Amino acid sequence: MNDAMTTAARTNFSAWDWAIVVAYLLISLAIGLYVKRYATTMTSYIAAGRGVGVWLGVATMSGTEMGLITVMYNAEKGFKGGFAAFHIGVLAGLVTLGVGLSGLIVGPLRELGVLTIPEYYERRFGRKTRVLGGVVLALGGILNMGLFLKVGSMFIVGVTGLSHAGWAVPLVMTGLLTLVLVYTVLGGMISVVVTDYVQFVVLSCGMLLATLLAISQLGWTTIFEEIQLQFGAGGFDPLASPAFGPEYVVWQAVLGLVGCAVWPTAIARVLAMESPTAVKRQFTWSSIAFAIRLIVPCFWGICAFVFVTRVVPELGPWFGVGEGELAAGQEPVSALYAMPIFMGRLLPVGILGLVSAAMIAAFMSTHDSYLLCWSSVIVQDIIAPLRREPLSIAARVRLTRLLIVLIGGYIWAWGLFYEGGDDIWDYMAITGAIYFTGAFALLIGGLYWRGASSSGAFCALLAGCSAVLGLGPIRSPVARWLLTLTDRPATQEAADTLLSSARVGLLSVAFTLTVFVVVSLLRPDNRSAATTAAAHRGE
Predict the structure, then answer these.
(1) Contact (CB, 8 A) for 249 and 86
(2) Cβ neighbours of residue 3 under 8 Å, at least 6 residues apart?
(3) 531 pLDDT exceeds 60?
(4) What's the confidence (pLDDT) of residue 30?
(5) d(CA 439, CA 262)
(6) Percent helix, strand, coil in the chain (nearest 5)?
(7) Packing angle of the helix pair 246-261, 501-522 (nearest 10 deg)
(8) Which of 262, 301, 268, 97 is nearest to 196 (CA)?
(9) What is the structure's pLDDT at 129?
């Protein structure tokens, strides 16, 4: 960025704000050091001893799911789609409420007492399914969190006014990753749950304060008028919005279900709860947080859009919105910077530090849970089942800690070097689908269909990997190739229309479910295997 952007992107971030942020980070580190003494077994390390009650469960789940990556990708959706993007949060809340009231998937899983989802695969479908499930889960999940560190660092860089400095993002990435690794490696799930609770309180206060100030500064009337002016009806109706549409809305409903009932970091909270009844109550109350965590950041993105088009119009061209054009040689910047720059200009000194600390809290609460989840899956569901000699408890904990560090190194490198044109939310949805399309089929089928077979489960896990076609660097050339087969112009716009990420995701889910059912019918398990599986389910 040049001097013009540097001036436009200045913020109110001061030394006082830095002091508030540093103090919060030191408190989090102290928690990790303190609870290390309690993380002595795998159950305590990855499931907090299964002693988490309802309200602590609600807080820790909300803290994890309300990560800084969540704030950033929803702000990006609000910035690009207006109020129509609210449908993502509304659907997530409604689906989570339905899961809480019914206990769909989560109730039976907690009743079985497993530590991980692939462990359930082994009980129901056999060891080879567990190992394959662990591999697919680890690969898809680690790829999914590949941009978390970079995007979270972009928030800090934007809100502090360092968005013009090329060295800022790598430096912040390194510092934040080091902090998260230290207290996650030391304390495991106990550290995660305790810090999530603190982060939930800080984050809730920060979000409420920032939202009220945004409304106060811009005004409700101004916000709605500007969205109507710039987006028209598509700014309020997702079905009429060119950024979304019917397929996208259906895809979001699917993501809402898997995000609360299938996604491993949410399931990790399920398995740490004290009882199946507590799980249902946890999800019922968490439905409110699941909606708010998506709607509020989306609203911030809307406010950022209004800010750069009406309040500070000289910023608009940098993000490709509003009137005016960039001078020759100037390049637009990522829309991800819009919301943090808006917050940095909106909030006064001191308040800005508190809100920034809340956002960093959100960043850490997501990273600690994801790092612990993927590393424990690799140890519990890939390494341990493949060994002839059983791993000791101490060896499992050591391996889990080592893998946390290795995965941390991967996300640092991936964030620096990956180049893709998808919105962050669409990237996460597709990479997550590599795992959850197969997992959804196996959980629904295994828990509720007696005819589900081991062969069907194994093939469904492989079929779910078809979701990788939805990644931008893969999807675009495939779509262009398909267009050439029909003698249509292979433009980027036509390619995006033919194979949108939502369409690929829905097709992958349908394909995986079909494979699961068909193979299960063609290659059923023998009677003794089916009887054993029923016994594991308590039937």
Answers:
(1) no
(2) none
(3) no
(4) 72
(5) 7
(6) 80, 0, 20
(7) 60
(8) 268
(9) 94
Q: What pLDDT, in 10s, does the model give residues 407-458?
A: 989 889 988 887 766 788 888 888 889 989 999 999 999 999 999 999 999 9
Helix axes 351-378, 393-417, angle to 10 degrees: 120
Distance (Å, whole) CA 173 – CA 163: 14
Angle at 365 between CA 362 and CA 366, to 5 degrees: 90
> Tokens representing 179?
């902090």
- Over its C-alpha atoms, the chain yields an Rg (Å, rounded) of 23
Q: What is the b/e burial string over 214-241, where b = at least 16 CB atoms within 10 angstroms of the residue's CB?
A: beebbeeeebbebbeebbeebbbebeeb
CA dihedral 476→422→150→347, nearest 10 degrees, is 160
Distance CA 156, CA 516 (A): 44
DSSP-derived 3-state class of residue 430: helix
SS3 323: coil
Q: Using CA atoms, how far apart are residues 38 and 348, in angstroms rounded to an integer?
A: 40
User: In angstroms, what CA-CA distances link 21 with 154, 214, 337, 361?
Assistant: 16, 21, 20, 10
**Which of 394, 456, 435, 408 has its CA nearest to residue 265?**
435
With CA atoms as reference, report the closest residue to 86 among 237, 212, 289.
237
**435 in Cβ contact with 464 (< 8 Å):** yes
Confidence of residue 251 (pLDDT cuts 50, 70, 90): very high
Residue of higher predicted confidence among 220 and 366: 220
Query: Per-residue b/e over 430-443, b at no fewer than 16 CB within 10 Å?
Result: bbbbbbbbbbbbbb
Q: How confident is the model at residue 41 (pLDDT cuts 50, 70, 90)?
A: very low
Check if the beta carbon of residue 439 is closer than 8 Å to that of residue 133: yes
Q: What is the rounded CA–CA span in Å between residue 272 and residue 279?
A: 9
Location of structure tokens 């990479």: 431
More confident residue, 266 or 66: 266
